C-alpha cells in the first residue's frame, strides 16, 4: 500500500502549506455538505447551514444523497466483481462517511488499486482513513482539482498506483455540477477519457433540475452560492454529452435510484419521489 502524506507539525515552516492549515470553516464546501447529509461528523456550521438550505428546498435531500451514494456503490461493485476492473481513478473523493471506492472494490478484488483525488484540505487530512485497504492492493490520495486534468494524470503518485496501459475506471460521482460552463467541463472529461485505453469505464453522476418544476434555477442553486464551488445543474441531454463516443451500459443514463437497483438493498422512499441526480456507466470501445 502506498501513502504520500506526512505528519503535520505546526512548528514546521511548511505547516502553512499543509492541508490542516488551509481548512476554512467559514466557507461551505461540497464535500463537507455531502458529509453532513450522509450523517458524517466532518463538517462545520457553514456546511450545515448550506445543507439545511437544501433540505428546505427539497425535503428529500438526505434520502436523495443516500440514494446517490448507493448508486455509486452498486456501480463500483459491478466494475470490480463483474467487469474485471482492478484500477480506479476516483476524482472528487469526498469524505469517508460511507464505504469508499477501495473498500467496495477490494471486497471483490483484493488487489484493486485506487487513486483518490480531491481539492478539499479536510479530505486530505482524513486521507489516512482511506489508506487502510487490503495489503494486496494499493491506494493513494493526492490533492488536485478536476479542472486541471493534466496535473492529475501526470502526478507521480497517480502513475505509481495506476497503469494507464490497462483499463481504468474513471469515477466522476457528484463532482461535475461544480464545474461551470466557463471552466469547460466537457473538455476536462474528454482529456480524462483520452488517456485511458479501450475497456476503461466512466462512472458519472450529475445533479439535475429536470424534476424540479416548482423551483427556479436561482432557488435551486442558492444554498451553494457562498460555497467554494457554486452548483451548475444540467439536463439529461447535457449530462449524456459527457459519455460521447463511449458505450453506455444498460439501463443507460437514468435517475440514480433506477440504475440497477439491488433487490435486497433497502430502498428509502424519497419525499417528492426524485433524487434529482442522473447516473450512468459507460465503457470505452
Could you characterize what this model shows?
The chain is an alpha/beta fold. It has one domain: Vaccinia Virus protein VP39 (Rossmann fold), CATH 3.40.50.150. The chain is 32% helix and 14% strand. The protein has 11 helices and 8 strands. Strands 1, 2, 3, 4, 5, 6, 7 and 8 form an 8-stranded mixed beta sheet that branches. Helix 4 (101-108) links the parallel strand 1 and strand 2 (113-118). It is globular. The relative contact order is 0.17.
Indicate the low-confidence ranges by residue numbers.
Answer: 1-18
Assign the CATH superfamily: Vaccinia Virus protein VP39
Q: What is the name of the CATH architecture?
A: 3-Layer(aba) Sandwich
Mean pLDDT: 80
Can you tell me the overall shape? Answer: globular
What's the total number of strands?
8
Taken as a percent bin, the fraction of beta residues is: 5-15%
Distance between the termini: 31 Å
| Major sheet attributes | 8 strands, mixed
Order of helices and strands: HHHEHEHHEHHEHEHHEEE
Number of helices: 11
The number of distinct structural domains comes to 1
Examine the coordinates and then state which fold CATH places here, giving the name of the CATH topology: Rossmann fold
CATH C-level name: Alpha Beta
Helix content: 25-40%
InterPro entries: SAM-dependent_MTases_sf, SAM_dep_MeTrfase_SAV2177_type
Pfam families: Methyltransf_19
Protein name: S-adenosyl methyltransferase
GO molecular function, one term: methyltransferase activity
Amino acid at each position: 500500500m502506498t501513502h504520500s502524506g506526512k505528519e503535520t507539525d505546526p512548528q514546521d515552516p511548511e505547516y502553512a502549506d499543509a492541508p490542516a492549515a488551509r481548512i476554512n470553516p467559514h466557507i461551505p464546501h461540497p464535500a463537507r455538505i455531502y458529509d453532513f447529509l450522509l450523517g458524517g461528523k466532518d463538517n462545520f456550521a457553514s456546511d450545515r447551514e448550506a445543507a439545511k438550505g437544501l433540505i428546505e428546498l427539497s425535503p428529500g435531500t438526505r434520502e436523495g444523497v443516500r440514494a446517490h451514494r448507493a448508486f455509486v456503490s452498486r456501480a463500483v461493485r459491478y466494475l470490480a466483481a463483474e467487469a474485471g476492473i482492478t484500477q480506479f481513478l476516483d476524482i472528487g473523493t469526498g469524505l469517508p462517511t460511507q464505504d469508499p471506492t477501495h473498500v467496495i472494490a477490494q471486497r471483490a478484488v483484493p488487489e484493486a488499486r485506487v487513486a483518490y483525488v480531491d481539492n478539499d484540505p479536510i479530505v486530505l487530512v482524513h486521507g489516512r482513513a482511506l489508506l487502510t485497504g487490503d495489503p494486496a492492493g494499493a491506494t493513494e490520495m493526492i490533492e488536485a482539482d478536476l479542472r486541471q486534468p493534466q496535473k492529475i494524470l501526470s502526478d507521480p503518485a497517480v502513475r505509481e498506483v495506476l497503469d494507464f496501459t490497462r483499463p481504468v475506471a474513471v469515477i466522476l460521482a457528484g463532482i461535475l455540477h461544480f464545474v461551470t460552463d466557463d471552466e469547460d467541463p466537457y473538455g476536462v472529461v474528454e482529456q480524462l477519457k483520452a488517456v485511458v485505453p479501450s475497456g476503461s469505464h466512466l462512472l458519472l453522476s450529475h445533479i439535475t433540475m429536470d424534476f424540479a418544476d416548482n423551483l427556479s434555477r436561482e432557488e435551486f442553486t442558492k444554498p451553494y452560492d457562498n460555497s467554494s464551488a457554486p452548483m451548475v445543474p444540467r439536463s439529461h441531454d447535457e449530462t449524456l454529452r459527457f459519455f460521447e463516443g463511449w458505450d453506455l451500459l444498460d439501463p443507460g443514463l437514468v435517475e440514480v435510484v433506477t440504475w440497477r437497483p439491488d433487490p435486497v438493498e433497502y430502498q428509502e422512499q424519497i419525499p417528492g419521489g426524485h433524487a434529482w441526480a442522473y447516473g450512468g456507466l459507460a465503457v470505452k470501445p
